[in-house]
Amino acid sequence: MSAAIELRGIKKNFGDIAILRDIHMSIAQGERHALIGPNGAGKSTTFNMISGYMAPTSGEVLLRGEVISGLPPYQINRRGLSRSFQVTNVFANMSVWENLRCAVLWSTGQRYAFWKNIDKLPQVRERTAQILADIHLTARRDVPAGLLTYAEQRALEIGITVAGGADVILLDEPTAGMSHAETERAVALIRRLTEGRTLLIVEHDMSVVFGLADRISVLVYGQIIASGTPEEIRGNPKVKEAYLGEEAA
Amino acid sequence: MSDIVSSAAPPLPNATEKLRFYGMWLVAALVLALLPKVFGSGTALTTFSLVGISIIFSLSYNILLGQTGLLSFGHAVYYGLGGFLVIHAINIIGGNKLPIPLPVVPLIGGLAGLFFAVLLGWVSTQRSGTAFAMISLGVAELIASSALILRTFFGGEAGVSANRTKLFRIFGWSFGPQIQIYYLVAAWTLIAVIAMYALTRTPLGRMCNAVRDNPERVQFVGYNPHVVRYLAFCFSGFFAGIAGALAAINFEIANSAYLGAAQSGTVLYATYIGGIGFFIGPIVGAIFVTLLSLGLSDLTQVWQLYFGLIFIAVVLFAPGGITGLLMMHRPLLKAGTLMKVVPSYLVALVPTVAVVAGLVLAVETIVHYTVNPGDDPHITAFGIGFDAASPLVWATSAILLCGGYLIARKTWAWVAQAWNEAAGIAREKGVAP
Question: Does any CB of chain A come closer than 8 Å to the CB of residue B433?
Answer without folding.
Answer: yes
